[in-house]
Write a structure and sequence with these properties.
5 strands; five-stranded parallel sheet; TIM Barrel
Length: about 190
């Protein structure tokens, strides 16, 4: 089961928004709601677990204007889901201003994704200006903090969903040279 907990994004009406993002059109189409409530998602997860044998949940969020970047709402949702179902939970978010805010997910979330999208800063400036504004070292710090909390191999730095393959192909999201540069950096 996967869901977007907040269907709006602080970058949407700005030039910083990512070129591949479609978060708000699905809201405008009426296919979803702006902010999902913990108790409603807990009810849905429980039903999915009982009827469809769902084993894990992925929670994502549009980026909020608050310093936590959406982490606090993810935490509320994750706590409700964990209590109701005990399912494994993966949460995705932008690095918060203070990376210690990631600790708030430690009791309810099992794995996290903090996606840098590409290690090539020029490509990033073009496809995701909002991310290019965040220093790469801030991502590194957020990944390290997350590994300390969630453990080895429980922290993702990129997203591999198939619908983005043309995007990867066109812009060379993880080219050998940019990946090598990032590995040296790390
Ligand atoms: S932060 Fe997420 S929701 Fe906001 S523009 Fe970027 S991809 Fe879209």
């Amino acid at each position: 089961m996967a869901t977007t907990t907040i269907q709006t994004c602080v970058y949407w009406n700005t030039a910083k928004r990512r070129k591949f993002c479609a978060i708000e059109p699905s809201l405008k189409s009426g296919a979803t709601i702006a902010k999902k409530k913990p108790e409603l998602l807990a009810e849905v997860a429980l039903a999915a677990q009982k009827r469809d044998h769902v084993k894990h949940v992925t929670l994502t969020t549009g980026t909020t204007s608050t310093p936590d970047k959406g982490i606090d709402h993810l935490m509320e949702i994750a706590c409700a889901l964990k209590e109701a179902t005990g399912l494994l939970i993966h949460a995705q978010f932008e690095p918060p201003e203070d990376i210690r805010m990631i600790d708030r997910l430690s009791d309810s979330v099992d794995t996290v994704g903090i996606y840098v999208e590409t290690f090539d800063r020029e490509v990033l400036k073009y496809v995701a200006p909002c991310k290019a504004e965040i220093p790469f070292q801030h991502y590194v710090d957020a990944w390290k903090r997350s590994v300390d909390i969630f453990g080895d191999s429980q922290v993702s730095s990129w997203k591999g969903s198939h619908h983005r393959v043309p995007f990867h192909f066109k812009y060379g999201r993880f080219t050998p040279s940019s990946t090598l540069t990032a590995m040296k950096w790390l």
